[in-house]
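Exercise 7.
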Amino acid sequence: MHCVRACMQNAGNNIPLSKQVRYMESTKAAMEARVGKAAARLLLSRSFFLFSVGSNDISVFAAAPGDVAALYAKLISGYSAAITDLYGMGARKFGIINVGLLGCVPVARALSATGACNDGLNQLSAGFNDKLRSLMAGLAARLPGLDYSLADNYNLSQVTFANPAASGYVSIDSACCGSGRMGAESDCLPNSTTCADHDRFVFWDRGHPSQRAGELSAAAYFDGAAGFTGPISFDQLAGPEDLAS
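Solution. The predicted structure, written as tokens, is:
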């Protein structure tokens, strides 16, 4: 899979979640120096912290499978540490987007002679999402004042793929920008062929959603329609100030 090769080639060149949290510590210190500790903490308590982590980790693991329980434990431990550290800095509102149908992106489908989804990869995603749901419920019970909204990217993808026409899509399996079979044999490059109508494709390139897909996902998570978020919507999480303490 392309994602696997890209992730391996860029190992050490990314910014891991733990380091991003350390950057946030520096940002908090700068805020305190500018407006004072009380004002900085109030601002952080009212801020919306958005997480979407795990897709690349799971894709890389799928290329060379090992101990699934150890994979989940490592990812959940990282999630837990990041949220707990941010909570300690004053953060209270956390929006979490779970892992979608990784086995149904064009680069995964292209590996199948029939263009079918990779069920094994989807099962890995589903298993992680179960762990993530339990983690957030546990953190909310343990950390007073923590509020969260868990967006179900996995379920939204299933609903979209089951009835693409309802969202105006004509393609759920191919990339709008790319080349070769299903547009998944190369990255989206300046000389790549693109589809005529970007909004009619779920995927922009062989591994990422189109702008239209992003817009529809954002709307679903914000409104919480059809149960795509829980226990509250992004709108509810971001809005009333009395949710934060």
